[in-house]
Amino acid sequence: MGELSNTVFSHAEEFVQQVPLLVTSSHATINRPAITLTFAQSLDGKISLPGQQLLLSGAESMAMTHRLRSMHDGILVGIDTVICDDPQLCVRHVPASELTSVAHPQPIVLDSQLRIPLTARLLVGPQTNSRLKMPFIVTGPDHDPARRAQLEQMGARVVVVACDAGRLCLGAVVRELRQLGIMRLMVEGGARVIQAFLESQIVDLLIITIAPVLVGSSGVAAALSPLSAPIVPQLYEQFGRD
Questions:
Q1: What average pLDDT does the structure give for the chain?
Q2: 111-166 residue pLDDT tens
């Protein structure tokens, strides 16, 4: 991604300041953080390809996403995203003057079997950059104790919650994160995590970037079935081509 202009950064800042839920933690409760779900999708509603990285957002939308990251205490993804994309989950696309002072969110990985690679950038990055945070890895009760010991020795925090039919219970996940001090949580993916949060109806704010591309029938949709709760649009904004 090329160098972005101050105009792009200012646009991102102006947008997020227009969204009331982004400038307050009023939706956080004693049981869970305030939750923002954000993802990019194609015109035909696809968010990924099976087992492949699919970059949909343009540079301007990416700047908005990174401004969002800076406004949340934690950023959550599933283990498939870590394995496929090897993300850093930090704040990078902001003005150069902020790079040394911006607060990075706490990375959080849903990983019921502790499959996270020991070479993942989420684990390696904080060892060379003290401003980055070691991840919280949320797992189930049937994890491998030896693997847990390896991860904890590296500095990761392993959080154990209940599972239901092999999947982590989202209610237990968000309760535990709130107890760990996460007041504002940003959920970024991947597909199964997005689908689970949409179905859970515990999302306070939904931000969808729509890219002007068609993925086709092989793509993975954000929602597998109609949502029972209505989505009330509040704001539309154009960022570059998105």
A1: 87
A2: 999 999 999 999 999 999 988 999 999 999 999 999 999 999 999 999 999 998 88
Distance CA 224, CA 211 (A): 20
**pTM for the full model?**
0.91
pLDDT of residue 23: 64
Q: Using alpha carbons only, what angle is made at residue 206 by residues 62 and 26, rounded to the nearest 5 degrees?
A: 110
Q: Give every strand in the sheet of 106-110, ordered side by side.
A: 157-160, 136-139, 106-110, 74-78, 184-189, 34-41, 205-210
For 26, the token pair is: 């009023």
Instruction: Please compute Rg for the chain using Cα positions.
Output: 17
Task: Please enumerate in sequence order all residues whose Cβ is within 8 A of that of 231, keeping only pairs 6 or more positions apart, or say none.
Answer: 206
3-state class (DSSP) for residue 167: strand
- d(CA 208, CA 42) in angstroms, rounded, equals 10
Provide the token pair at 203.
Answer: 């999302």
Beta carbons within 8 Å of 235's beta carbon, 6+ residues apart: 15, 18, 19
Q: Looking at this protein, which amino acid is placed at residue 206?
A: L
